[in-house]
Amino acid sequence: MKATERILNILIFTFLYAPLLVMVVFSFNASKSTAVLSGFSFYWYKELFASSDTITALQNTLILAVASATIATVLGLIAAVGIFRMRSKPLRNTVMTITDIPMMNPDIVTGVSLMLLFVFIGRLLGLANSLSFITLLIAHITFNLPYAILNILPKLRQTDRNLSYAAMDLGCTPVKAFFKVTMPAIRPGVLAAWLMGFTLSLDDFVISYYTNGASFQTLPLKIFAMTKKTVKPDMYALSSLIFITILVLLILVNILQSKSQKDNNRTLKKE
Q1: Which residue has the higher pLDDT, 259 or 61?
Q2: Which CATH number covers residue 136?
């Protein structure tokens, strides 16, 4: 039984990560071939940084991902605290159900509905271009927000409310007590919310396609435009760099969460 489970695990992980490994390997290929390795080379990485269009698209993508993840995390933190402090259970369950809807909607439904909303508002305001970076940012915040709430809320439920009350008894204001006591306890959840929002925004295509202005091109949109002709191996190099960066970030987050959990366990043992 254990041997069968191991074989299944190997097959699953091979299926998941073999395409990424192939992409990374061929990003160092000396030729354009995706079937034959002609030799090890950094040529496509040099081509990547020499392409101004690609670098601009990458900068746009990073700006959008950082901005949307940060705003969604802040709003998600506020919303999670509000939901956590709701006394009415039916109301809390209703709000959580509404929160889950954007995650269950297909991306194309979300993208088209947001596009129609932005175009409608743009016409009411008499705007020449209804879609722009602002509409794209709002769209990314919209689909990142539920993930932020669902990452932060469990951490809030794990905290002891009495600690905040004790801090206020000792002279802290409610806001100061939150940042001094609650925030350190839920920091791993906040960090996970930001990281998830960043990664979701980084590779989003469908919603970006419908809510993007013509003057602001993200990396997924540029790659899609390239598929109409041919995808150059410098895109393999860029995708490899993004994959490695996200992998390192995930490892760091797991290490920080593990360290935080060990510190909490040590504190509880001392008490």
Answers
A1: 61
A2: 1.10.3720.10
